[in-house]
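Practice problem 4.
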């Protein structure tokens, strides 16, 4: 029996109304659940399956100093080998792309004949976007990495102690930061670049510039325009997961063994007062770091979400542990005097004891090749790839 005034047409209207009300509630539920996990995606995006992505193979990495960048370079070189990509390597016997001079395309081996046909660029250079674009394709993905300037300056001091006049003339890092202008002379910028705002310099800017708000904001904006992604070395594993997603690479592509690290007994202790002095002395780097540390976490919340990030970091560390157990006889880095195969001895500098690895000797040929790539130091890997890409040239001497 029909209710008064309830026609078939009215019933259809009620059913449609209930259907859309249910959809609205369901989408609101997903949206609220999404917000709880820190993922900034609309409910429409959640209901539509993501499109499959394609791995990016044209990539430029600005290799900054003392930021874990040697480990990133190893990742880039391995990826280039895996897919038979062409790397923009330094010309002749150099291991950097003209650094500390501002980069020009002629610093790349073979540029005059190869032209804009390189896939990967990742050796040290001082960034010059117009010249880099002469070498790299229009669809190149640009990224770099930053580190907290406080441990960065301490690391630079120990590593470059014998090369930088400002460091040589002071007894330790505490003495230097207590009165940096006593030891630092801007006129000797080529020798002293590692002593102040080194990341600012690597990005192509004046590391002795006045810390003016209008100037620093303009530089930060320009860096945002030139780079698709800035990673943070203090959150290295999280950075590798973000990089994996940005490049659409596999997990094994970003697995790493830490390279160019030093023994803990060479680390010099800093007081809270020392740290504040470094922030003031390297104020340009400090602003650079703070700005991109914030954008780093915003990027994670927008693209991955903290819950997924945590899970993928765990997967990365599990896989890393598996490879260390497979490859390494000690399953950890060892001091320079304990490295048995001198072909895997990393470059040593200053007062730092740069660690390396010993491989197990019972590995089959395929596994040995994989493990050798994981532990191959920067200079040796650059020399190896140079010989592969330019067999008629004299091999770079390590």
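Answer key:
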């Amino acid at each position: 029996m029909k209710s008064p005034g309830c026609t078939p047409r009215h019933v259809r209207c009620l059913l449609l109304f209930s259907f859309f009300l249910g959809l609205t509630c369901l989408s609101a539920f997903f949206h609220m659940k999404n917000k709880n996990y820190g993922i900034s995606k609309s409910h429409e995006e959640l209901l539509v399956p993501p499109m499959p992505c394609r791995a990016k193979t044209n990539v430029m990495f600005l290799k900054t100093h003392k930021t874990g960048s040697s480990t990133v370079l190893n990742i880039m070189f391995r990826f280039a080998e895996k897919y038979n990509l062409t790397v923009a390597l330094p010309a002749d016997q150099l291991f950097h792309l003209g650094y500390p001079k501002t980069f020009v395309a002629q610093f790349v081996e073979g540029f005059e004949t190869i032209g804009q046909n390189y896939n990967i660029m990742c050796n040290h250079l001082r960034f010059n976007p117009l010249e880099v674009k002469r070498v790299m394709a229009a669809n190149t993905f640009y990224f770099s990495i930053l580190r907290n300037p406080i441990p960065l300056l301490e690391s630079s001091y120990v590593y470059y102690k014998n090369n930088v006049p400002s460091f040589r003339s002071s007894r330790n890092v505490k003495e230097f930061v207590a009165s940096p202008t006593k030891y630092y002379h801007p006129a000797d910028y080529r020798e002293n670049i590692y002593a102040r705002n080194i990341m600012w310099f690597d990005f192509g800017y004046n590391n002795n510039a006045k810390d003016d708000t209008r100037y620093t904001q303009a530089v930060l904006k320009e860096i945002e325009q030139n780079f698709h992604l800035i990673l943070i070395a203090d959150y290295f594993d999280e950075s590798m997961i973000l990089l994996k997603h940005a490049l659409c690479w596999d997990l094994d592509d970003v697995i790493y063994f830490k390279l160019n690290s030093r023994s803990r007994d060479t680390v010099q202790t800093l007081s809270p007062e020392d740290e504040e002095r470094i922030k003031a002395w390297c104020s340009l780097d400090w602003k650079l770091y703070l700005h991109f540390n914030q954008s780093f976490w915003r990027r994670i919340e927008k693209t991955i979400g903290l819950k997924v990030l945590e899970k993928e970091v765990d997967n990365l560390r599990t896989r890393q542990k598996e490879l260390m157990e497979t490859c390494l006889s000690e399953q950890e880095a060892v001091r320079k005097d304990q490295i048995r195969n001198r072909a895997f001895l990393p470059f040593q500098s200053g007062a730092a004891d740069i660690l390396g690895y010993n491989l197990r000797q019972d590995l089959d040929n395929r596994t040995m090749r994989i493990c050798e790539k994981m532990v191959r130091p920067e200079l040796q890997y650059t020399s190896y790839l140079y010989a592969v890409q330019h067999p008629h040239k004299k091999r770079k001497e390590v």
